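Justification of computing resources. Each target in the renewal requires a structure prediction run like the one illustrated here; the chain below, 662 residues long, is used simply to show the kind of job we budget for.
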Amino acid sequence: METYERFGFVKVAAITPDLVVADCDYNKDKIKQGIDEALAQKVRIAVFPELCITGYTCGDLFWQSTLLNSAKDALVDIADYTEGKDILVFVGLPLVVGGKLYNVAAALFDGDICGIIPKTNLPNYAEFYEARNFEPGQAMVDFVTLYNAEGYDDVYIPFGANQLFECYLPGSNVPFKVAAEICEDLWVPQPPSVSHALAGANIIVNLSASDEATGKIQYRRELVKSQSARLVCGYVYASAGEGESTTDLVFSGHNMIGENGRLVAESERFKNQMTVGYIDVDKLSAERRKMTSFAGELASGEDYEETQIFFGDGETSEDIDYSDIKRFDMNIDNAPFVPSEEADREARCEEILMIQAAGLKKRLVHTRAKSAVVGISGGLDSTLALLVTAKAFDMVGLDRKNIIAVTMPGFGTTDRTYTNAVELIKIMGATFKEISIKDAVLGHFKDIGHDVNNRDVTYENSQARQRTLILMDLANEYNGMVIGTGDLSELALGWATYNGDHMSMYGVNGSVPKTLVRHLVRFYADTCNDDVLKNILYDVLDTPVSPELLPPEEGQISQKTEDLVGPYELHDFYMYQILRFGFEPKKVYFMALKAFDGIYDKNTILKWLKVFYRRFFTQQFKRSCLPDGPKVGSVAVSPRGDLKMPSDASAQIWLKELEEIN
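Resulting structure tokens:
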């Protein structure tokens, strides 16, 4: 078994073979060739198009016994060909059952015909006239024999739409259940896949023959994406292509693999090919567990026939071969919070800025606040908070002069961050205030008997708390509220001073991860149409992330956060996989190896993953009393919403699993 299968990744393929209409022998050989190509890529589920053994465009030739008998013989031959092969294959053909002709999908595994699924909904409009040749299939499962088919005269095969093929991989935590529907079944108001999913199917295969027409590709693509999203499933769509008759129609072989609303893979049209992708069944199961509304009930009397399929030799192993990562050809995004396409990224940034500003607008109006107080350090987080606050003030119709922007130089403040903070405040039209914290903190050290030369956590946190004290009191002075600047990544790691920068009256950045904060500031810079502001923001972006609590060295920042707590791009990746899907530590590590291959070595990835788990568990008490703030994405840590976690939970079993990694 491949290591990735241990973590719930199932490799699937939608295959459009070359085809000759009504030549079952030719088509059979091409299907076998497709099976071989899929096996060479270690595919576990291979899906071929609708009626691929004969061709979809046979018309009234479907009434010819010679064609039907040839198709049945080809089916048996293909089934025999799968013997000893660890692959579940779906092929389409016309089949006579009980004296009626059906358009069916046959499920084949290890030399057997495991089930026959008839098409439920027959299109009989426009260019389609399937009701002329075929009977609509039934949902309930009966058992039939294939008369005059070598080896199947006395074998009873499940026949009906309500079939699930429950597949097991040795060592995998999650079995996958596969169900099938055929072409038009997806396009109707109540697709069979709805019932299949409610019965437990997490992968739906569709054998299709969808012809091309202008604009149809977008509609078809959205159907696959939306159905996979609605059912929280993987969806493998294999369509007919070149070789079908072009008497009236053209087929493009448009194959797609969807997973919970996104396309994992998509073929190039007008080119017969195999489209391969991975479906993460573990992720789908995690999503369904969270969605209590997903648990529905099947219609009364809808029973399902289940066939169990076991891949591999059944052996399991506790050892995980992480070198398998080289053979794992799935692309894993190392920045899951940040869209990879520029247009999507810009749209996401614009939307998030609006959500943040709208949240603050409501709070300003509700509290009748006359002002807002923001501490500006010259760093990314406070810069974003000021940009959002200005946007909210504009939406309410308040003068930006009522934004009290405060710079509070301390022992670690550098000229670069100070200058950027001052210039940013002025150009945004806020009221500038400068209050040094040095004397107050030195006085505090004297009060508590702390040696100023002892630069420990007391030395650092006293500065953060002094700044928060100033901001809170200024909010009272100006009849306003303190706007929090801390981001989601800092909250997940607990990288905030309790009752210091941890606290505010409204935290606009609380559900924005650090990797996305950077893109939000860059987006604002790119679209602001002010060259001076643009240059300030670009310099902020180039400044190392730092709390600036320790004195600078030769005028430069001496305390770089990512040297102390680890790279934020790693931590954001960990946070997304752990909080979004609840993945086990070994799977997160495996995925990180792939996502950051060539960027970080395995020891670095493991080191910071351990740090993430330790800090995430020990720092929950800070998240348990977070200020209000808007949720902007699918991962958040508010104790009132997404993360209800005890502050004293142990991380032991998670860390123990990581210690087992060699």
